[in-house]
Design a protein that fits this description.
Elements (H helix, E strand, L loop, with lengths): L1 H27 L3 E4 L14 E4 L2 E7 L2 E2 L4 E2 L3 H19 L7 E8 L5 H11 L6 E6 L9 E8 L8
Parallel strand pairs: 6-7
Antiparallel strand pairs: 1-2, 2-3, 3-8, 4-5, 6-8
Helix pairs in contact: 2-3
Length: about 160
């Protein structure tokens, strides 16, 4: 009986160890994809519009740039927020996502007094399943922008449980 048990354990280990090794190897290997679209402004520095690592998408801060002119849209913080979120939408689309996939945003404002006006624009893009969010006043934003918004999204179908 002891010999049969030893043989059974050895057979089990011969199957289990390569399987475990394969699982460890897969989890150690991450997939990194650069997301880029001409529908959103080009990066103005050494960064990408977005980077996807496995199922997590990191979207660089978007300001109110018109992608064709690379100039900030006129009209103040409301117009800039609209354009920044439109740009973000194009990046999400390039990654086969929507605003529903966004799980976290960070909003940087030149003036915290613009918070309510930005919220009005924000709710036109994030209509349900609101992401977690942080908002800060920044001393200065790129190119004199009034607002910058970055996001983290999860790629794939999302089911919200409440």
């Amino acid at each position: 009986r002891g010999v049969n048990l030893t043989v059974s354990v050895n057979r089990l280990l011969c199957v289990f160890i390569p399987l475990l090794s394969s699982i460890i190897s897969m989890s150690a290997s991450l997939r990194r994809v650069i997301i880029s679209t001409k529908k959103a402004p080009d990066a103005i520095g050494p960064y990408n519009q977005a980077v996807q690592v496995n199922s997590t998408l990191y979207i660089s801060g978007q300001i109110g740039f018109n992608p064709s002119t690379m100039e900030i849209v006129s009209g103040g913080v409301v117009a800039e927020a609209q354009q920044a979120l439109t740009n973000m939408g194009h990046i999400l689309d390039a990654a086969n996502c929507t605003f529903n996939n966004v799980v976290k945003t960070t909003v940087l404002l030149a003036d915290m007094n613009d918070f309510a006006a930005v919220n009005d624009v924000y709710t036109k893009f994030f209509t349900s399943n609101y992401p977690a969010r942080a908002a800060y006043q920044a001393a200065a934003l790129p190119r004199g922008a009034r607002i910058e918004i970055e996001a983290v999204a999860v790629v794939g179908e999302i089911h919200t449980l409440e």
